[in-house]
Amino acid sequence: MILNIILAVLLCLVVGYSIYKSRKTYRSIDRLLDCVLNQEKITLSDVQEGDLSALVNKINRIQKVLGKQVELAETEKEQVKSLVSNMSHQLKTPLANLSIYTEILNSEDLDKQKKEEMAEKIKKQIDKLDWIIGSLAKMVKLEQDVISFDAEGISIKKTLLDAIDTVYEKLEKKGILLVSEPYEDILLFHNRKWTVEVFVNLLENAVKYTKRGGTIRIRVCPYEIYTEIQIIDNGCGIREDEITEIFKRFYRSREVEHIDGSGIGLYLSNLILEKEKGYMVVKSVYGEGSCFSVFLQNCKN
């Protein structure tokens, strides 16, 4: 009888201790979860039981992951805000011009010649809008890595000729001489369609910032691993403190704000070259001209 009583008491003690320990463990876990929710740092001193130390370590790791995700989300949010703001700024001018030209075109006082001039200006603004929207779409797709970007070893001469053909009319209109120095064709690792866009951007910039009657040179310099394609102009040049700035998205120097441009071309070109494992550098002397060098990987014949 006494033995039964003792066993019953011991059983009660074991059950009671288990309940106490479970409640204490529950309170400890509850406190840890509160720390996570309140973004408070957890230290091992917060927990007395050795059994919970492993849990503390895991919770700390979860906190770090969650913290990085929050930072990433905030960064992306700011990038989206910046992108929307810049897009609005880029689209504002051509849209305003379209509104003005359309209003003038509807005027009954315009003769046939003036109407044709207004119609041509409207077309130019529409082309500009189309280019900006197209470039923005490409930029976002490249940034988000949603484009299947295939590159291979192909002739660089054909790529350069396609780019020259695209800007030839602008060269002629401004009376700029284009000199392509003799070079042997070589197979370089690139995507023709996208790389043509890189060279078109560089050539159009050279035309844009070179005075009438100036000269643009294309020079191809093969090296052991890469081949350098230089686009050289004798235009206005770039200030030294702006050399790194010009590759940023939507950046435009105050000195050339009066010249048509969007600040997208060089940034987009860099994105394309990164996909091809290539890169771009620039050397410039302010007031004398610039040399933009594209480096593409060599391929075995």
Write out key terms for the chains shown.
alpha+beta; single chain; 301 residues
What does this structure look like?
It is a single chain. The chain is built from six helices and seven strands, in the order H-H-H-E-H-E-E-H-E-E-H-E-E. The radius of gyration is 32 Å and the shape is extended. The longest helix is centred in the first third of the chain and has 53 residues, at 53-105. A hairpin with a 3-residue loop joins strand 4 and strand 5. The protein has helices at residues 2-37, 53-105, 112-143, 156-174, 192-208, 265-275, and strands at 152-155, 177-180, 187-190, 215-222, 226-233, 279-285, 289-297. The protein is an alpha+beta fold. It has a five-stranded mixed beta sheet with strand order 2-4-5-7-6. 56% of the residues lie in helices and 15% in strands.
User: What Rg do the Cα atoms give?
Assistant: 32 Å
Quaternary structure type: single chain
SS field, number of helical segments: 6
Main structural class: alpha+beta
| Nearest-integer average pLDDT | 76
- In percent terms, what proportion of residues is strand? 5-15%
How far apart are the first and last residues' alpha carbons, in Å?
99 Å
Instruction: Order the strands across the largest sheet as they lie in space.
Output: 2-4-5-7-6
- The amount of helix comes to 55-70%
Low-confidence stretches: 3-10, 12-17
Shape: extended
Number of strands: 7
Largest sheet: 5 strands, mixed
What is the string of SSEs from the N terminus onward? HHHEHEEHEEHEE
